[in-house]
Amino acid sequence: MSQTNVTLPPDYYLRNFVSLLDAVVTQYDDLLSPEETAFYQTFRQLTPDAQKLYVRLLTRKGEIFRATKLRYKEITDTKRAAQELESCGLIAIDPDVPLAEAIALWSKPEWLEMMERLGVSAKPFAKLARAELDAALIGVLSSGDDEPWISGELLLTITGESIYQLQDPQVFDVLKLLFFGNLNQDLTDFVLRDLGTYRYENYRLDRETRLFRSRAQIEAHLTSYELLSELDDVLSEDRDALLEFAQRVSVVPADDPVLLRRLQKIKLAVARQLERLEHLDDALNLYQHLTLPDARERHIRVLAKIGREQEALQLCAQLLKENREHPFPLRFGAKLARRAGGDWPARPTYKPISQCVELPFTGESVEFAVVQHLSADGHCHYVENALFNSLFGLHYWDALFAPVPGAFSHPFQHAPHDLYLPEFATTRAELLAELADRLHEATVYQERWRDRFGCINPFVYWAALDEELIARALERIPSEHWIAVFRRFWRDLKNNCSGLPDLIHFPASGGYELIEVKGPGDRLQENQIAWMTYFAEQGIPHRVIQVTWCEQEALREHKARNNDSQLA
C-alpha cells in the first residue's frame, strides 16, 4: 500500500463507470440480455451531463432523490440532464412512490414547516419523535391502504420540489456482478487504485479467462445473492421456514467452485441454526452434503451427540487421513476413542528447546527486547509470518497470477477467486510442479521485489522486509528448508501460513535460527507447536526464548502501573 498526492479529475466517477461498462461488454456481450445491451447503448449515447447525473444517482443511497439536493459543480445543468434521463427511461420525474419512502426524504423541521404552509397546525406534532411523526404523517396523507403510496403530483404540491427515481437499477447489479464477480465491491476500487493507495498485478482479463461462461451461471449467482439477502431474516424463523429455505438453495454445477462455496455457506448457516434449535436430524441431513471444513466438523459433533459415535469416529479418521496435523480430529477423535475403548493417534507432544532470558525492561515489546539482545551477535529481525510468506508469494508469483479461466474477473483482486479452494492446485498442477522442489537464484527474487514492489499479493508483506534481509535469508537458509516450509503451506493455505516464529537470528558465526518469543505468563499456541514439531522433523533450527524482566526493572514497572491506576 502506498500514498501519493494525486488529484482526481472532477468526472473521475464517470470515467470509472464507463471503464466498467466497456470491460463488461468486451468480455460478455454474448451473454448480456437485450435489456442490459440496450442500457449500455443508451447510456453511451447520453450527453456528458446526463451521464454524470445518472452515475451520481446510481452511487447514492436509495433509489429516490430530491432534485434540490443534487448539486454537483461538474454538471452544468442538472434539471436538463434529468429531463434527458427521463426521456431515455433511465429515471422517472415525480413518479408515484411509497409514502414512507417519500416522507423519509425530508427532515422533521421541513415537514413541520410544510404543515404550517398547508394550513395544518404543527404544534401537536412538534414534540413527536421522528418515527412517531412519520407514522402520523402516513395517517394524514394516506388513504388507509396497507402499503400507502403517494402520487408524484400531490407530493410536488405539498413539498414544492420534484423527486427523481431510478428506473430498473438492478440492471447495473448484473453488470457489476460480471465485472467484479460479486456484488460486494463497487466503484471505490477504481478510486483507491487511481489515488495510488493500492497497486495490482497486470494479470490477463479477456473472454478466454472470464469467470462466467453462460447466462444460466449468471442467473445462478444472482439468485445466490438474493438468498443471502434473505438469510438473516430466515435464521429467526422456525424449523419449517428454515427447511423450506434450505430447499431453495439449489445444487450447482461442480465446475463453479466459487458459487458452490457461497451456497454451501448459506446452507451451513441454516444447518447451524437447526442444530441450535435442537433439530439435530434436520441439521445432520444438511451437514452430510456439505464439504466445507466447518460443516464436516459440525457433522461429526452432531453424530456424536445423537449417539452415532462409531460413524463420528470414522469421519474423524478420514479427516486425519487427509491432514495428519488437523487439530479437531486429533482432539475430538481421541475423546470419542476413549469413550469407545479404542486406540487413537496421540496428539503431538513435542517440546522445543526453551531458554529463559532475563532482560531489562525498556518499555518495548518482548520481541523487540530480544531483537536488541540477540543483535549483539550477528543480525536479528522481527519477521513473524512475513519472511516465509513473502518468499512463498514471490516464488509462486506466476502461479498465483496465471491466466486460469475464472481466476480473475476484474483488475482489483487481492487474490485469484479460487486461491483457498482445492481447485486452485489442480488447475495449475503443471506450473506448481515446476516450482515445487527448487528455488530460483536470489537475483530472481530481488528483481521481482523491485519490479513488483507494493503490488498486492496475498502472501507478500512489502512493508516488513527489505532487499538486504531477503538476500541474507536466501544466503543463510538452505533451499531444502524453504521448500519444506512451502510444502506445509500448501497442505492448508488458509491456516498454515500463520503461527511461524517471531524472529529470525543470523549469528555472526553463520547459519540461522527461528525464535519464538514469549513474555511472562505467555505460552505456545497450538499452531505454533505444530510448526515447531514440523521444524524438528525437517531439521530446521528453532527454539523458544522465555523472557523475564530484571527484578529491579520489574519492580519499577509495577510501581509505575500502581501510580497510574491511582491517578486514574
What count of helical segments does DSSP give?
28
Count of distinct structural domains: 3
Q: In angstroms, what separates the terminal alpha carbons?
A: 38 Å
Percent of sequence in beta strands: 5-15%
Strand tally, please?
A: 10
Largest sheet, if any? 5 strands, mixed
SS content category: alpha+beta
Broad shape: globular
Rg computed from alpha carbons, rounded to a whole number of angstroms: 31 Å
Q: Order of strands in the sheet with the most strands?
A: 6-10-9-8-7
Mean pLDDT: 91
The helix content, as a percent range, equals 40-55%
> Segments where pLDDT lies below 50 for 5+ residues?
none
What would you say this structure looks like, in words?
- The structure is a single chain.
- 54% of the residues lie in helices and 7% in strands.
- It has helices spanning 12-28, 34-45, 48-58, 78-87, 99-103, 108-117, 123-126, 130-141, 152-159, 170-180, 188-194, 215-234, 239-248, 257-276, 280-287, 293-305, 309-322, 327-340, 366-374, 386-395, 397-400, 423-427, 429-435, 442-451, 467-476, 479-491, 526-538, 551-567; strands at 64-66, 91-93, 97-98, 149-150, 163-166, 354-359, 379-382, 503-506, 513-518, 542-549.
- A hairpin with a 6-residue loop joins strand 8 and strand 9.
- Helix 17 (309-322) runs antiparallel to helix 18.
